[in-house]
């Protein structure tokens, strides 16, 4: 499954250049561009990501899985669905970027109670900032964050930064996995 997901990510979500031509959110230029959404919103990509993330969290004793909207949402739903297929139900949840200001004011959408154990997920980690924000917001709502899973680690310090907040942090795929695949399987020009 992992190799198939790497292939799909390289076809739909990953760009690589010998020169830094891709502008990041920080304004910095990079050799690598990763946008997982075309893959995680694809039916096969969703299937693969969901099963691989479920495998990464199945023994963590969690009640829920989610992260900052929108990158984490399709992965959380897919992993929750995979957990149901495996008869180990884990609820999906989503963490808002801006706090709801009407009704019941909260950061999180989903069916979880304070004190429950959760895993925070993200589609890509560069510095880890959005994942750390999700961890802090989940904790502010009373959830116990016991694991973090990153679908693609850009290997730029994000995983190490997240581990300061959640020691049990893993990635499914690394930038090196994607670059290796591209170099071994060049796309037709």
TrEMBL record:
GO terms for molecular function: magnesium ion binding; orotate phosphoribosyltransferase activity. Its EC number is 2.4.2.10. It is an enzyme of class 2 (transferase). The keyword Glycosyltransferase applies. The keyword Magnesium applies. Orotate binds at residues 126, 154. Pathway: Pyrimidine metabolism; UMP biosynthesis via de novo pathway; UMP from orotate: step 1/2. It holds the Pfam family Pribosyltran. Keywords: Glycosyltransferase, Magnesium, Pyrimidine biosynthesis, Transferase. 5-phospho-alpha-D-ribose 1-diphosphate binds at residues 96-97, 100, 102, 122-130. Residues 77-165 form the Phosphoribosyltransferase domain. One of its GO terms (biological process) is 'de novo' UMP biosynthetic process. SUPFAM superfamilies: PRTase-like. It catalyses: orotidine 5'-phosphate + diphosphate = orotate + 5-phospho-alpha-D-ribose 1-diphosphate. Its cofactor is Mg(2+). CDD domains: PRTases_typeI. HAMAP family: PyrE. Belongs to the purine/pyrimidine phosphoribosyltransferase family. PyrE subfamily. Catalyzes the transfer of a ribosyl phosphate group from 5-phosphoribose 1-diphosphate to orotate, leading to the formation of orotidine monophosphate (OMP). Homodimer. PANTHER family: OROTATE PHOSPHORIBOSYLTRANSFERASE, URIDINE 5'-MONOPHOSPHATE SYNTHASE. This is Orotate phosphoribosyltransferase. It comes from Desulfonema limicola.
